[in-house]
Amino acid sequence: MITYYDDQSVQVTSNALRVDGRSYPLAELGTVWHRRGSRSWRVLAGRGAIGAALAGPIVAAVLGVALAVWLHRSLVVTIAIAGASVLVGLGVGPLADLLFEHLDRSYARGSRELEMWARWRGQPVRLLRTGDALRFGQIYRAVQRAMEQAPQPKVIGSSGSSPRPRSRP
């Protein structure tokens, strides 16, 4: 038996697909397809908040430099205000790295609910539903590989044996 994918709730092997304790033998699965749900506004708002947090220090530094020039103070005061503003902008570099990492992960997870469906024993069955696009893609591809490698049952008829056509994902 070959394992194509395995996590806490999903296992794809050369024999079966197991999702949340339910097992679907590959020989009983027909066509496999996926559906995309509507966008999650919560995820998009979170991305916008991260973008605003990234732009905040830059805006603060620019405003500080503009304020320093606008106040028309002595050269020392102007340089001090501008320098402090630039240091604030530079000081958030490590924070910006963390925010960029969160932003990158949000794109990897996606902003839609994704569902995997299959025809099982003649009926459409939802196999999986997740909002994690990266995980969904890994599972979907594992199911494709497993079904491509699964031996196709032979149908014995009056003219001899011939492979039964199967629908692939």
Automatic annotation (TrEMBL):
<feature type="transmembrane region" description="Helical">
    <location>
        <begin position="76"/>
        <end position="100"/>
    </location>
</feature>
<keyword id="KW-0812">Transmembrane</keyword>
<keyword id="KW-0472">Membrane</keyword>
<dbReference type="Pfam" id="PF19744">
    <property type="entry name" value="DUF6232"/>
</dbReference>
<keyword id="KW-1133">Transmembrane helix</keyword>
<dbReference type="InterPro" id="IPR045629">
    <property type="entry name" value="DUF6232"/>
</dbReference>
<protein>
    <submittedName>
        <fullName>Uncharacterized protein</fullName>
    </submittedName>
</protein>
<feature type="transmembrane region" description="Helical">
    <location>
        <begin position="44"/>
        <end position="70"/>
    </location>
</feature>
<feature type="region of interest" description="Disordered">
    <location>
        <begin position="150"/>
        <end position="169"/>
    </location>
</feature>
<feature type="compositionally biased region" description="Low complexity">
    <location>
        <begin position="157"/>
        <end position="169"/>
    </location>
</feature>
